[in-house]
């Protein structure tokens, strides 16, 4: 068992901040922070992702559509799908679960 402390807490670093807090052979967990008004510059990943919004508000844009997101929302993005957070109106903090573990940008 391992307790993760400080996971999902917004961290203000410019332009965005991703910190990995756990890595196993099957998955990884981290926190992604985007400040209000910030731009999400991520590219599609090789891993499936689950985002859990812990704080903030934004819009998730994918080829399949857009979705307004806020605290408590859980989002699934399959490996390889283009996606980006836009219209970040409040500092956004997301728990990010990758499976298999995140391999980098």
TrEMBL record:
Pfam families: Cupin_2. SUPFAM superfamilies: RmlC-like cupins. It comes from the Bacteria. Residues 32-96 form the Cupin type-2 domain. InterPro entries: Cupin_2, RmlC-like_jellyroll, RmlC_Cupin_sf. This is Cupin domain-containing protein. The lineage of its organism: Bacteria, Bacillati, Actinomycetota, Actinomycetes, Propionibacteriales.
């Amino acid at each position: 068992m391992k307790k993760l402390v400080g996971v999902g807490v917004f961290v203000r670093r410019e332009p965005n901040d991703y910190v990995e807090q756990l890595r196993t052979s099957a998955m990884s967990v981290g926190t992604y922070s985007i400040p209000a008004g910030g731009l999400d510059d991520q590219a599609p990943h090789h891993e499936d992702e689950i985002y859990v919004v812990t704080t903030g508000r934004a819009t998730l844009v994918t080829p399949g559509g857009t979705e307004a997101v806020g605290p408590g929302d859980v989002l699934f993005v399959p490996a390889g799908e283009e996606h980006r957070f836009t219209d970040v109106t409040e500092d956004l903090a997301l728990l990010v679960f990758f499976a298999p573990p995140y391999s980098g940008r």
